[in-house]
Amino acid sequence: MLRIDKKYIERNGGLLHALRKKSNRYIKALLEKENCIRSSTIHMNKLDRTIAHTHPHLDEYFADLVFRSTLPQNKLDIDFIEMAVYSLEHDAGCKAYWPNATVFGIGATASGGVSPLVLFDEHVLKGKKRDESCSQMLVNQILFPGIPLSINRILKEVNEIDALGRAHDQHIGNIIKTGHEARIPFKIEEKKADSVYDTLDAEWKKTLMDTSITSIIYCIEHGINIDTYPKQKEESIRESLNYFIEHCGHNQNHFFTETINRMKNTHFNQTVVFKKAKLPKTQSENQLLVLGRVCFALEKCWGQQIANIIMMHWWEFIYLGQLSFQKLSHQFQEFDLFDGRFTNEYGDFQRSILPLSSNTNNDVWLIWANQNPNLVKGNRAILNYINKNNEGLGIVMIEDNFKFTKTVMKAKAIDQSIWELLVDVIVSLEPDKWHVVHADNGNYAPFILNGNPSHRYIKQSEITLVQIESILKELYKQKEPF
Hints:
alpha/beta
């Protein structure tokens, strides 16, 4: 077990920093044992921080964990920050912070007019990649072949998921995406206006990822079975969620019981999770970083007390995401009560209906949402509403005027050919504003992006729901009638 006591915590700047440093030292010891750390060419006297793009992915978190574990002891304490690029060539933030930083996952296509001290970014223009992940780039450059099998196994999982996606919903790589948006209640008062809500900072989130990844590596190294026996891991999950229920402070919320019951239904059958959570390439090897395995591994690696602390955060993210889903799902009935438009604590919502024939089952729903920061992963509730109530025939546009982004996505029953024609028209109208993602088979993914939290220099689209409705009418008119 990796032990930290009160003195260690005090000497290392508090619990969160102590956990990160202990994780780095453990990984460093494994790498040094195999003698696989290359001689560094980095100007260590210049290295003051590491940087990942805003809302990092599993890939960037793992790359930073391994990178720090190769540094001298006096550099394990350097800052970790998240940054966005606001200007392609004249970004003051990049110019101030990047020259003394190792940067992960951003910078190859947009660097703000400055070069970082070290760059690990696999992306190239037009959405392509030069390597499977920035983690793989890092390993290739700073480690000799023959890295410990435990670290290599996590690297394989990171690579496959970064390249192909399809991480299980309970994979911490997905849960942390919810965590990036979740506004945690740091202070709950009777009057909501007196309560304090905020997202976790970069180093706090990194502690959750570092300790969780390290716990899986620890279990592999010590021959602790995390692959099989789902009932054993289910017991850890049950006890952990019950601990969250007892200590979370949300139980006065009107939707608390409904939300918790949904969480129980989702997480209390680890046999199903273990069966479905496979690596996307092989389809036979397990995804080790799903929450059931992580919960069990945290207990074995760090002990029950630290495991409870880390798991409270994972459950908080899941709870807030599920709470948004439950509340918004209930409120969609207001579309019928208020002539297709309503406003609530999450933002403004509007539904238009595009009739395609006399058969109402063929109507397409178009839903527009102008969300505020209270909403966590609102696309899930909106798409679920369309799938359940209109047989999956729908198009969604989500605006975020706090981040200056837009997303357009299709529900499951929209014909792929219609969707690709719609995307082509939108991109032709605003060629420099939209990013099109391609699926494994070459088809367009079911969403397109106008800006993201990391690339703030992209101008916000002026496309409206009315324009999308007009384009769809024309596209369906060109198709054979129903």
